[in-house]
Amino acid sequence: MSKLSTILIFGMSLLLASCGTKNISTPETPTIPPTERIAPSPTLAPPMDTSTPPPTTAPVMETSTQSPTFDSADADVTYVRAIQDAEGSWTFHITVSHPDTGWDDYANGWDILLPNGSKLKVQEGDAFTRLLAHPHVDEQPFTRSKRGIIIPENMTRVIVRAHDIVDGFGGQEIIVDLEKDSGKGFEVERE
Fold it and tell me: In what order do the strands lie in the sheet with 182-183?
C-alpha cells in the first residue's frame, strides 16, 4: 500500500470516529396503514328510470322574441336560414350574437340538434356542428354557414344553439320547423 493510500484511510477513520457516538435524533415517520380492500356489495343498485328524459339545463326558445343585448354573456342564436338541396342534404346559415372580447371570451361554435338531443355533425370527430375558429369582436352579430348536414327524413324540427368558451351553452336557442317556409327567427328553403 502506498503512503498516500495509508494517509487517506487514516484520515477517513478519524473523520468517522469524530462522528462517533453522538445521538442524532431523526423525526419519526408516521406509518400509514395499508389500504383496506373494499369488497363489492352483494346488493344491486336500483335500475334507472329512463321513462322520462333528463331535464335540460337551459330552456329552448320557440322563437326569437328577444332582441340580443350585450348585457348577456351567453352566445345567442338570432336567426337561422336552412336550405335543403336536391340530394337532400342541408346548408345552415346561423346568425350568432355574443359580446366577444377577444381570444379569452368569444362564441366558438354552434350546434344543430334533433329533438332527442342528438348533435348533427358533418364529420364524426367535430366538437360542434360548426366550429367558430376566432373572435368576432368588431362583427356583431355575425353569420356563418355549414353545408352537407344530413337530417333524418322523419325529423321535422331541429334546435339551433350557440356556445362560447367561457359560459358554454345557455343563450337563446331557436327551434326550426322544417315543414314551414318561415317562422319567427328562421326561414327554410328547398332547391
Answer: 142-149, 90-97, 76-84, 186-190, 182-183
Torsion of CA 63, 68, 71, 76, to 10 degrees: 60
Query: Do the Cβ atoms of 177 and 81 come closer than 8 Å?
Result: no
Full DSSP string of the chain: --HHHHHHHHHHHHHHHHHTT-----PPPPPPPPPPP-PPPSSPPPPP--SSPPPPSSPPPSS--SPP-TT--S-EEEEEEEEE-TTS-EEEEEEEE----BTTB-EEEEEEE-TTSPEE-SSTT-SSSEE--S--TTS-SEEEEEEEE---TT--EEEEEEEETTTBS-S--EEEETTSSEETTEEEEE-
The pTM score is 0.62
User: What CATH class does 76-190 carry?
Assistant: mainly beta
Segment 29-49 mean pLDDT: 46
Sign of the torsion angle spanned by Cα atoms 62, 118, 127, 177: negative
Which position has the grid cell 350585450? Answer: 70
Strands 174-177 and 182-183: unpaired
Amino acid at 115: P
CB 129 within 8 A of CB 119: yes
Longest pairwise C-alpha distance within the chain: 106
Chain segment 46-66, per-residue pLDDT in tens: 454 445 444 444 333 333 333
